[in-house]
C-alpha cells in the first residue's frame, strides 16, 4: 500500500484548486472582454462621426484586439467572430489614423489584411509615403491580437542606436500577457546595415526604401540553437515599416 502524507495531500489539493481558479478566472475575463467587442465598435463609430479621431483609434484598437482574441478562443468565449469582423476592425483603426494625419500608421493597419478588397481600396486613398535619408523613427511589424513588434532608431553623434522590442502572444496572451524579447545594437550613420549577436544567434538588419509602403527594415534572424536571449517563441525576423519619424 502506498502511503501519502497528509501534508502531500494538502499540497496536491492546493495545486488543483489554484489551477481550477486560474481556469475560471480566465474564462470570466475572456467572456467579459468578448462581450465588449460590440461596445468598442459602437463607441469607436460615435467618436469617429464626432471627428474625435484619437478617441476613435483607442476604441477601434480594442475592437481589433479582442475580435481576434475572441475568434481564437471561441470555444470558451461563446462568441462567434469571423475573419471579416477582424478585417473591418483593422480597417476602422486605419481610417481613424488617416483622419489623424498619420498615414503610415494607417498603412500598416490596412496591410494587416493586404489581400482584402477593402484594405486595397483604403491603401490607394493614402498619400505616397515620404522617403527621407534620415533613418530615425519607429518601425513596426504586425503581431497577434492587433499588437506590434517595435524597432526604434535614434541618432547619437555619428551612430544610429537601434532598439528592438518583440513579443509572443500565446493563445491566452491578451489576458495573461506576452513573452518578451529585447536587443540593442548600433551602426554608423553612413551605413544601412546592422547586426546583433547572442551566443550562436545572429540577427541582421537592412534599411531599405519601399516606394509603395515607405521606409522599412528587413530583419533576418538565424537562431542556431539559441533563443537569442528572448522569451519563448519571440522572433525578430520579418519586415518592419516606419510609422513615425524621430
TrEMBL record:
Family annotation (InterPro entries): TPR-like_helical_dom_sf
Keyword entries, A-Z: Signal
Signal sequence range: 1-22
Protein name (record): Uncharacterized protein
Organism of provenance: Acinetobacter venetianus (strain ATCC 31012 / DSM 23050 / BCRC 14357 / CCUG 45561 / CIP 110063 / KCTC 2702 / LMG 19082 / RAG-1)
Amino acid at each position: 500500500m502506498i502511503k501519502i502524507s497528509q501534508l502531500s495531500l494538502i499540497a496536491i489539493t492546493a495545486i488543483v484548486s489554484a489551477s481550477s481558479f486560474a481556469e475560471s478566472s480566465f474564462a470570466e475575463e475572456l467572456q467579459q472582454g468578448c462581450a465588449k467587442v460590440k461596445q468598442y465598435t459602437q463607441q469607436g463609430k460615435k467618436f469617429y462621426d464626432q471627428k474625435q479621431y484619437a478617441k476613435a483609434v483607442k476604441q477601434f484598437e480594442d475592437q481589433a484586439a479582442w475580435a481576434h482574441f475572441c475568434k481564437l478562443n471561441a470555444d470558451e468565449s461563446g462568441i462567434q467572430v469571423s475573419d471579416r469582423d477582424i478585417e473591418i476592425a483593422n480597417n476602422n483603426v486605419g481610417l481613424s489614423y488617416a483622419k489623424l494625419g498619420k498615414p503610415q500608421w494607417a498603412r500598416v493597419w490596412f496591410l494587416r489584411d493586404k489581400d482584402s478588397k477593402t484594405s486595397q481600396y483604403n491603401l490607394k486613398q493614402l498619400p505616397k509615403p515620404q522617403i527621407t535619408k534620415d533613418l530615425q523613427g519607429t518601425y513596426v511589424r504586425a503581431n497577434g491580437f492587433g499588437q506590434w513588434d517595435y524597432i526604434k532608431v535614434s541618432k547619437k553623434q555619428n551612430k544610429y542606436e537601434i532598439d528592438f522590442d518583440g513579443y509572443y502572444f500565446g493563445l491566452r496572451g491578451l489576458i495573461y500577457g506576452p513573452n518578451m524579447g529585447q536587443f540593442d545594437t548600433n551602426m554608423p550613420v553612413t551605413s544601412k546595415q546592422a547586426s546583433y549577436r547572442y551566443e550562436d544567434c545572429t540577427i541582421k538588419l537592412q534599411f531599405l526604401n519601399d516606394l509603395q509602403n515607405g521606409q522599412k527594415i528587413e530583419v533576418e534572424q538565424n537562431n542556431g540553437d539559441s533563443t537569442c536571449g528572448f522569451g519563448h517563441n519571440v522572433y525578430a525576423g520579418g519586415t518592419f515599416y516606419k510609422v513615425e519619424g524621430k
